[in-house]
Amino acid sequence: MKPVAAVILAAGKGTRMRSHLPKVLHKVCGRPLLTYVLEAVKKAGVERIVVVVGFGAEQVVPVAKVYGEIVYQEQQLGTAHALLQAEKVLAGFAGDILVLGGDTPLITSTTLARLIETHQSQQPASGNQKSACFLPTSHLSPPTPKTMATVLTAKLVEPAGYGRVIRNSAQQVVKIVEQKDASLAELAVQEINSGIYCFAVEGLFKTLARLKAENAAQEYYLPDVIETYVRQGLPVAACLAEKEEEIQGINDRCQLAAAEDVVRQQVRNEIMLSGVTILDPLSTFIDSEVKIEPDTVIYPFTIIEGACRIGANCIIGPGTRLKSVQVGDNVVISNSVVIESTIGDSCTIGPFAYLRPGTHLARKVKVGDFVEIKQSVIEEGSKIPHLSYVGDAHIGKEVNVGAGTITCNYDGQKKWLTVIEDKVFIGSNTNLVAPVKIGAGAFIGAGSTITKNVPAAALGVARGGQRNIPNWTKKKKQTKEENIS
Q1: Residue 305 has pLDDT above 60, yes or no
Q2: Are 143 and 124 contacting, i.e. CB atoms less than 8 angstroms apart?
Q3: pLDDT of 131-190, one tens digit each?
Q4: Could you check whether the bond before residue 124 is cis, i.e. omega within 30 degrees of 0?
Q5: Residue 381: Cβ within 10 Å count
Q6: What is the count of structural domains for the chain?
Q7: Which residue range is the domain that position 229 belongs to?
Q8: How far apart (Å, rounded) are the C-alpha atoms in residues 165 and 215?
Q9: Cβ–Cβ < 8 Å for 442, 458
Q10: Predicted local confidence at residue 122, as pLDDT
């Protein structure tokens, strides 16, 4: 096998996306389109990866450079011009070049490997079948040792909008014709050009440099290379993709949503086959980087985003959103939002809790309804059952936080820390004005506004004394009647 270099075309703006974000950075199941392509290419076994960037390069480069080399297309003058920009970095490379767009997230490493195998096979046109791609009735034309290019194709029931692949009687590609230029007979052809190619490096860049921009857009396109080879009598082969969805490029938000549907179902199936129950897959949205351990149950209308890790025997949902969260085993989270937080084993969250970034719950913590926590540590066995705000706090073990408790962490200029040590009892409707520390085993009376530290085992009370006025309601009623009369 010859070495293979992949050139990923990621320079285009993607005008039909109507976005300031480069097209290849739009996401499917939480990952950029470009990342899916780069991963597929890497798994296909290529030795070098070159990414051509242009529009929004400063945003694309951080994603692309993890996988390979970067070259720049200063002016976006078409796909052939983009490939030509890789000439310098591939100088002296003796192998084949795989070329595909960075906007085809459904392409698989298996299909790319088949394309490479097809191109590199030295099977003569009259020989026996050697590759799985060489099935004579449906797959592809048998390549010869002199094959200069192999095109990945697909057969579509509705091929409108795609360039048609025209073959001769020997099943060699003789023409790729765009729809606007096709005859009626050519329009009836269902085999289309995917825009994914494998080229022999010999003479490729010279051919690219000689192309002419004879089109309305004044751009240089890769199908023109195929036309040039055919005109010169050089063989061009084709390899038919097994699944038409794989070659789908993303050009607008509708196609982005369609790709999202495909990947999302793949993700859900993989998770369910690993031992997780998803009660209603169609109402459950899970990103591709999520990992969930067996015997966890996901209830409907749940969204799990980012690099979430969820342990075993959990119950998640319904109506829950998790983003970049680490969840232990035996955790229950219902009707809640948890973002960039850590939840220990055997915790109970919700319903209707909001855990903001920087929240860390140890084992057996209870966070109940209408509780918001932010940038805080809650130690093992503590309870915040309902109607509370905890921000910038460290709460020890086995603390009970009564309903309506607020940590007043912001003085208008700076956030301050509240420290509550082990086994503290906070009465309902308490305000803890930070910076403040409640010592271990202390008891805070309900309705208090605590502005000073409370020693360990002490009772802290800070509220106005109760005053009872006898017969007040009778006197009020009598006064009202006198005023009326």
Answers
A1: yes
A2: no
A3: 434 434 445 555 444 689 999 999 999 898 889 999 988 888 999 998 888 899 999 999
A4: no
A5: 18
A6: 2
A7: 4-247
A8: 19
A9: yes
A10: 52
Q: Which of 159-168, 197-206, 213-222 has the highest mean pLDDT?
A: 197-206
Query: Could you give the angle at which helices 109-120 and 33-43 cross, rounded to 10 degrees?
Result: 50
Residue-level pLDDT at 126: 41
Cα–Cα distance between 394 and 382 in angstroms, integer? 11
Give yes or no: residues 236 and 292 share one domain.
no
Active site residues: 386
- Residues 163, 298 within the same domain: no
The answer on 190 and 312 residing in a single domain is no
448 pLDDT above the threshold of 60: yes
Q: How far apart are CA 308 and CA 85, in angstroms?
A: 39
Query: Radius of gyration over alpha carbons of the chain, in Å?
Result: 32
| Helices and strands in the chain, H and E counts | 9, 39
Answer whether 111's CB lies under 8 Å from 154's CB: no
User: How many beta carbons lie within 10 A of that of residue 319, not counting itself?
Assistant: 17
Which pLDDT score is estimated for 476?
83
Whichever domain contains 399, its CATH number is 2.160.10.10
CA–CA separation, 10 vs 100, rounded Å? 9
pLDDT at residue 143, rounded to an integer? 44
Residue 237 per-residue DSSP state: E
Q: What angle do CA 432, 400, 438 make, to 5 degrees?
A: 40
Provide CB contacts within 8 A for 336, sequence distance 6+.
320, 321, 349, 350, 351, 352, 353, 354, 355
pLDDT of residue 170: 83
- Please determine, for residue 429, whether its predicted confidence score (pLDDT) is greater than 50: yes
Distance CA 152, CA 239 (A): 5
Q: Residues 397, 380: contact at Cβ < 8 Å? A: yes
Report, as an integer, the average pLDDT of 68-77: 96
Q: How many CB atoms lie within 10 A of CB 347?
A: 23
Residue 454 DSSP label? B
Degrees (nearest 5) of the Cα angle 240, 246, 247?
Answer: 70
Q: What is the DSSP letter of 143?
A: P
Instruction: Give the span between the Cα atoms of 373 and 59, in whole angstroms.
Output: 33
Is residue 95 scored above 90 in pLDDT? yes
CA 306, CA 326: separation in Å to the nearest integer? 11
Q: What is the mean pLDDT of residues 295-318?
A: 99
Q: Is residue 82 part of a domain?
A: yes
> Does 229 share its domain with 298?
no
261 to each of 89, 105, 109, 281, how far by Cα in Å? 37, 12, 20, 11
Tell me the three state secondary structure of residue 89: coil
**Inside any domain, residue 256:** no
For residues 161 and 183, what is the distance between their CA atoms, to the nearest angstrom? 14
Partner residues linked to 383 by β-bridges: 366, 400
